[in-house]
Amino acid sequence: MRKFIIKRLLLSVVILFFVALIIYALMRCLPTSYIESIARQKSMQPGSKTFDEWMQQLSATYGMDKGIIAGFFSWLGKALTGNFGDSWFYTEPVLQVFNRTVWLSFIMGGIAFIFEIIIAIPLGIIAATKQYSKTDYTVSVIALAGISLPTFFFAALLKLLFSVKLGWFELFGLVGRNHQQLSSFGQFLDKAHHLVLPIVTLVVISIGGLMRYTRTNMLEVLNADYIRTARAKGVSEHKVIYKHAFRNTLIPLVTIIGGSLPGLFSGALITETLYSIPGIGYTSYNAMVGGDIPFSMFYLTFIAVLTLIGNLIADILYAVVDPRVRIS
Predict the structure, then answer these.
(1) What is the rounded distance in angstroms from the CA atom of residue 26 to the CA atom of residue 28?
(2) Which of 211, 247, 208 is nearest to 122 (CA)?
(3) 87 lies in some domain
């Protein structure tokens, strides 16, 4: 196992290098950028230099006058020392912007992920054990609705019903108008109240796929020969389902759960944008639209690192949930 982990880590470093290179090349090939916007603004001022002159000056200042390969290695050398530069769009250090916004997205994603597991997996198991019953059809309809509903449409329905019609929640934002006058606990409740609809949106949109995946794999396991043998020996149905069948269903579920790690930190771009939640997803969207190469490079590389770590964790968990899986 130790050799396997070391081998995978070394392979991940190589993969990450080429992924970062591709990301940097794509960032440099964007049709517009922050530098062009600033150069255009400055060139329009009375008595100012031309647009081309400003582009040359700003490109030299930000190191954009180098080629893609040379620029990438320059960025990589600084990144290895923990220096990711300043965000062009937010005009402050990249790590500072990231640290200010990522934990809000992590809290939202973590809570939604916990509810997703609590709701989707049990319902998938119930639907599989009661195949072709009313319960199974009901769960399948809920799952298909969750898969089919676009995020922006479902969020608009929630806002129309609970914000406009009933007035229970605010339409957007993280804090209310009287947030500063509240106590510390009151401010906490105010933020929690504003996060209810975004979290509900994330949960409903996410449970459908995991629910169907659990049901499909559970049905496949329940039809296996060893399950029929266990039932023929008189083993209780509860033990057959939750001890023998469910443990084998966990193997494919580990892939889903391990792959969910990047989602906890990457933020929910559409949901955060619709509800104006200042998380990392909304922040990265504004940075990319504004051509903020330093922040976009850090954010996309960070997601690539999490994806590689998630895959490694999933591979290790295979041996944990199934003794038959061993690495030699």
Answers:
(1) 5
(2) 211
(3) no
Q: For residue 43, how many other CB atoms are within 10 A of its CB?
A: 15
Handedness of CA 228, 230, 235, 240 (dihedral sign): negative
CA–CA distance, 113 with 17 (Å, rounded to integer): 30
pLDDT truncated to tens, each residue of the chain (328 aa)?
Answer: 677 778 888 888 899 999 999 988 888 777 656 777 778 777 887 777 787 887 777 777 666 777 788 888 888 888 888 888 888 788 888 999 999 888 888 888 889 888 988 888 888 888 888 888 888 888 888 888 888 888 888 888 888 888 888 888 888 888 877 877 888 888 888 888 888 999 998 888 888 888 888 888 888 888 888 888 888 888 888 888 877 787 777 777 777 776 676 767 766 788 888 888 888 888 888 888 877 888 888 988 888 888 888 888 777 777 666 666 555 5
Whether 309 is covered by a domain: the verdict is: no
Q: Read off the amino acid at residue 291.
A: G
Indicate the residue type of 260.
Answer: S
Range of the domain at 119: 101-219+246-289+317-321
Q: Which of 219, 198, 199 is nearest to 139 (CA)?
A: 219
User: Does residue 86 lie in a domain region?
Assistant: no
Contact predicate 287/296, CB 8 Å: yes
Kindly state the tokens that stand for 147.
């898969």
Q: Quote the number of domains for the chain.
A: 1
Q: Of 64, 62, 112, whose CA–CA distance to 87 is shortest?
A: 62
Distance CA 267, CA 283 (A): 9
The C-alpha atoms of residue 327 and residue 141 are separated, in whole angstroms, by 40
In a domain, 194, yes or no: yes
In contact, 237 and 126? CB cutoff 8 Å: no
**Tokens standing for 167?**
């007035």
C-alpha torsion 63→65→67→70, nearest 10? -30
